[in-house]
């Protein structure tokens, strides 16, 4: 049977057929691997977060805000070029769930070979566009570099190093997608995050050693950036060969295989539009700020934004580390023909937990980010009160987006108009409102875009076309929990300002921050459990899964694979 027919085979609930006819899927393995992926991902993100704080502080002190802003702008350009990937990796991951459950090695080899063939073309395309783009750097960056007094060769050197790191992934490390789909993403996390952690520590050491000599410090930064990308590539290649010794890809068969697996091209074509929206929404903000403000301190404001974005990125990384295992787990569940009822219940349970995490993080950013910026980078490198509030709302909307893991697992990418509308709202909102209210207006445009598509359309799309249920179940959970947690946050935020005001040293910041965080979580969880039935159900759901995972020695047969997570 072709992969297209296998993947698109009509879903049949487990309750309607004998349990033993389902594809073989070790439920205890899925549970343990999902937990391991989440725990290791969170641990490495915390370590990387701590290293990032020291890294950015020493980078600013040694090389300055403007060079940090330049690096952020060039990174955004690299991310834009990566749109050429078209979402192929996500389509490949979706296509691997069924053959992985069935352990169909031939199909796996063919799919990965097809991916390698596509990625070779993408690599050549990105490299060619980059060469052309380099000739236009004096036009694109000339004015900003002149104002900031940064030599043009800095931009060339930084761009080439960042581009090399990106291209290595397309040439050599594309097969890591197999580890993620096979619930072994934690192994990739150890390599990628571990090497990034080592890189940051080495770069901080270089800044300290070459203190007072910015040129040597910058060259050292470039050299470390380049060498670590080489180490990452070799390390990951050795891991894949060890875990999958039977994986023998043949890129030369790509043109033939693309006709055998047309669903991959279909899904990739749909994902292209989602890829564009992802870039515009999450990666283009530095470019938008630099374009809208167009003042002498444009790069300075980009650097200030990036300091805050480090907080959001780290928080998002922790949330994604916890939830990144959800997509392959749901993919395995669906490949094993688990019931829609169970998967929908799992969705609402994860939604409750995600809203709690997103609200907690956003409130911490709202009430403690200015204190942190004063202690961390010093000076006036912080947002105004209005800008901080709007940025916190935007963080919440992004951190609480729970539908993607499930739509990806279901292969639901056909709403190609949605990302285009999302990008259009973002661009129009940021430039329109930004021209009136500056940075606050830019944040307003970002909020409008996320609220319209991510939190209105996407839930309806998943429930109507995926679960076949009323969206009321989603909005009942979302609205009730957001209103309750938001009110608690306002009260405790007022209490923080009354009791402590501005925090002036790191020790007080840590103690007060942890104390406030624990108080908020305690009050929020208790009240949400007592007042909201959906949150109470989610608590029981995860408690049951934790009990089965950590305390049950022998797995008893259960109906509809309900303990797969």
Protein model, in words:
The longest helix has 37 residues, at 27-63. The protein is built from 23 helices and no strands. The chain is an all-alpha fold and 565 residues long. Residues 1-25 and 554-565 have low confidence and may be disordered. It is globular and about 60 Å long. It has helices spanning 3-8, 27-63, 65-81, 88-102, 105-135, 137-148, 152-171, 177-181, 185-209, 214-243, 254-260, 262-283, 285-293, 298-323, 326-335, 340-376, 385-399, 404-410, 417-437, 439-467, 472-499, 506-531, 533-550. It has a domain at 23-271. α16 packs antiparallel against α17. The protein is 80% helix and 0% strand.
Number of helices: 23
Shape: globular
| String of helices and strands | HHHHHHHHHHHHHHHHHHHHHHH
For the sheet with most strands, the description reads: none
Percentage of helical residues? Answer: over 70%
Based on CA atoms alone, the radius of gyration comes out at 24 Å
Residue-averaged pLDDT, rounded?
Answer: 82
Structural class: mainly alpha
Spans of at least 5 consecutive residues whose pLDDT stays below 50 are 1-25, 554-565
Give the DSSP E fraction (strand runs of 2 or more residues).
under 5%
Separation of the first and last Cα atoms: 29 Å
Tell me the number of strands.
Answer: 0
């Amino acid at each position: 049977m072709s992969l297209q027919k296998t993947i698109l085979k009509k879903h049949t609930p487990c309750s309607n057929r004998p349990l033993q006819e389902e594809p073989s899927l070790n439920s205890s393995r899925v549970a343990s691997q999902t937990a391991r992926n989440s725990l290791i991902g969170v641990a490495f993100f915390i370590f990387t977060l701590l290293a990032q704080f020291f890294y950015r502080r020493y980078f600013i002190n040694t090389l300055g805000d403007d060079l940090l802003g330049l690096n952020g702008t060039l990174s955004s350009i690299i991310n834009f070029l990566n749109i050429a990937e078209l979402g192929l990796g996500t389509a490949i991951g979706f296509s691997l769930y069924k053959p992985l459950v069935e352990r169909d090695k031939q199909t796996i080899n063919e799919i990965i070979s097809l991916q390698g063939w596509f990625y070779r073309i993408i690599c050549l395309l990105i490299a060619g566009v980059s060469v052309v783009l380099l000739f236009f750097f004096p036009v694109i960056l000339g004015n900003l570099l002149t104002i900031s007094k940064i030599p043009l060769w800095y931009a060339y050197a930084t761009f080439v190093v960042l581009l090399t790191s990106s291209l290595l992934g397309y040439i050599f490390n594309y097969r890591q997608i197999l580890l993620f789909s096979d619930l072994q993403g934690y192994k990739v996390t150890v390599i990628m995050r571990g090497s990034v952690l080592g890189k940051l520590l080495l770069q901080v050491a270089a800044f300290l050693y070459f203190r007072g000599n910015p040129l040597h410090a910058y060259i050292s930064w470039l050299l470390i950036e380049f060498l670590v990308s080489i180490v990452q590539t070799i390390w990951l290649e050795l891991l894949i060969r060890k875990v999958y010794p039977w994986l023998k890809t043949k890129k030369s068969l790509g043109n033939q295989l693309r006709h055998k697996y047309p669903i991959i091209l279909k899904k990739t074509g749909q994902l292209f539009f989602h890829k564009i929206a992802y870039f515009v929404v999450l990666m283009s903000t530095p470019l938008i700020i630099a374009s809208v403000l167009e003042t002498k301190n444009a790069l300075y404001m980009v650097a200030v934004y990036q300091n805050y974005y480090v907080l959001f990125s780290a928080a998002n990384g922790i949330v994604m580390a916890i939830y990144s295992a959800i997509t392959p787990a749901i993919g395995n569940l669906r490949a094993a023909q688990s019931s829609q009822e169970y998967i929908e219940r799992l969705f609402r349970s994860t939604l409750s937990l995600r809203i709690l995490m997103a609200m907690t993080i956003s409130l911490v950013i709202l009430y403690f980010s200015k204190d942190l910026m004063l202690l961390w980078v010093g000076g006036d490198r912080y947002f105004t009160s209005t800008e901080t509030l709007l940025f916190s709302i935007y963080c919440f909307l992004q951190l609480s987006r729970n539908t993607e893991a499930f739509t990806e697992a279901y292969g639901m990418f056909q709403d190609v108009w949605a990302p285009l509308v999302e990008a259009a709202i973002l661009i129009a909102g940021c430039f329109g409102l930004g021209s009136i209210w500056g940075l606050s207006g830019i944040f307003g445009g970002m909020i409008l875009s996320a609220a319209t598509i991510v939190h209105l359309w996407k839930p309806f799309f998943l429930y109507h076309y995926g679960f076949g249920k009323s969206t009321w179940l989603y909005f009942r959970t979302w609205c009730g929990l957001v209103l309750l947690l938001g009110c608690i946050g306002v009260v405790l935020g007022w209490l923080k300002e009354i009791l402590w005001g501005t925090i002036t040293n790191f020790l007080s910041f840590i103690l007060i921050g942890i104390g406030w965080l624990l108080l908020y979580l305690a009050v929020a969880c208790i009240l949400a459990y007592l007042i909201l039935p959906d949150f109470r159900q989610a608590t029981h759901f995860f408690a049951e899964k934790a009990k089965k995972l950590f305390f049950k020695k022998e797995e008893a047969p259960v109906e509809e694979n309900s303990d797969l997570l």
